[in-house]
Amino acid sequence: MAEIAPLLRASDGGAGQDPLLCVAGVSKSFREGDEHQACLDNCSFDIARGELSIIIGPSGCGKTTLINLIAGYELPDSGSITLDGAPVSAPSFDRLVVFQETTLFPWMTVYANVVFGCKVKGVPQQEMQEKAKHILSKVGLYEFRDKYPSQLSGGMQRRTELARALINDPKLMILDEPFRGLDAMTKELMQEFYLTLFEETGLTTLFVTHELEEAIFMADNLVLLTHKPARVKEILKIDLPRPRHFSMMASKKYFDLHGYAMGLLVEEAKRAFEDGNAIAFDAVSSLE
Ligand SMILES: Nc1ncnc2c1ncn2[C@@H]1O[C@H](COP(=O)(O)OP(=O)(O)O)[C@@H](O)[C@H]1O
Ligand SMILES: [Mg+2]
Questions:
Q1: CA dist 195 to 19, 116, 153, 191, 280, Å?
Q2: Which domains does the chain have, with CATH numbers?
Q3: Average pLDDT of 125-139?
Q4: What pTM does this model have?
């Protein structure tokens, strides 16, 4: 194996000084009948400002649970999560999540969906209209502002969801498998679209996926999780140049990073399979 450098261990935090988000020693378990099932086990990592960090791990390992904690929808059993030094204890417009399932209101137009958060916050009408125009133009949906979600393609729905989050100027944009379920071509276009947006704005992003190709293509840092209960197995620096382009997926560096990370993921997916989670194994055997 050629050199993969620098490799950052979980204990380093990975983000250097003054990270935006710190996840420190976070554990979470759920009650199943009379038992407590451990889901996250002492997870620690940092998210650097202006970087795109990706969490990857086998299906069912605890990625969405971790996102729910970072978003403030649930609280950890132990450990702490801080954003800009302040403890995360509830949902906030600072940390907005786009999930794989569409959460658009079907009875509202694209425009009404996008300005929903501004209305909740009481943003003045004119400022809200200007922001909406800017964001909708950025995601290429200004012409479609009066359509309803059911009148949009899958890719357009995801862009509406992105616009609905972006209009609130989050400090941390969180995306939990946002392109899952899209056809292959639309998914590639959406990856390219988000990368361009990220490379233009430098918006700190935490992205979750179980697909290694997507992860290496997009990330600055890869946080690899173990099989459930999830621990941070390794944090990997993806030092491919930006702007990223699909041609980089044919480079030696990409190939080396992919091979290295794949070895770690296969170990975990095999453990998941032994525990009876066939989905995790399917994901890996399709990569092998
Ligand atoms: N609210 C909950 N109650 C009980 N078990 C849960 C709850 N949320 C998640 N789990 C369990 O935690 C594990 C991890 O789930 P999840 O975080 O959704 O995984 P991933 O997103 O990595 O696929 C699964 O076994 C799931 O069944
Ligand atoms: Mg999930």
A1: 21, 25, 20, 6, 27
A2: 7-94+170-285 (3.40.50.300), 107-169 (no CATH)
A3: 95
A4: 0.90
